[in-house]
Amino acid sequence: MPAATLDAFLNSYLGQPDEFRSAVVTTVRQLTQAAIKVRNTINQGVLGAAFAETRGANADGDVQKDLDVFSDDIFLDAMRRAPVALYASEELEQPVLLDRQAPLAIAIDPLDGSSNI
What we know:
The strands form two sheets. Strands 4-3-5 form a three-stranded mixed sheet, with helices on one face. A two-stranded antiparallel sheet has the order 1-2. The protein has one domain (about 5-110). It has four helices and five strands; from the N terminus they run H-H-H-E-E-H-E-E-E. It is about 45% helix and about 15% strand. It has helices spanning about 5-15, 20-40, 45-50, 65-80; strands at about 55, 65, 85-90, 95, 105-110. A hairpin with a 6-residue loop joins strand 3 (about 85-90) and strand 4 (about 95). Helix 1 (about 5-15) packs antiparallel against helix 2 and helix 2 packs antiparallel against helix 4. The protein is of the alpha+beta class. The radius of gyration is 16 Å and the shape is flat.
């Protein structure tokens, strides 16, 4: 049995298209693209190391690094292009209202484990 790809899974999940499933698929694809952007930045080595500086504390009181904020900005920007009403992040004090009419809300830790960097 061949390995399933995310795209194949999302296409099968979509099945008979309906508004909610389409919203989920669009959002997952945007999250995927954001994760790839963050990964590519980290993989740049020296440039990625520039993001290791600390900024203070996040909403949970954890040490917040520049890379945490950068990652959060990437994911927030991606969710602006998805059918998402609210974006809640460990890096933010309050959720961000994106589109009051959208069917989804996202809660995310954009870069779990950044203390390892």
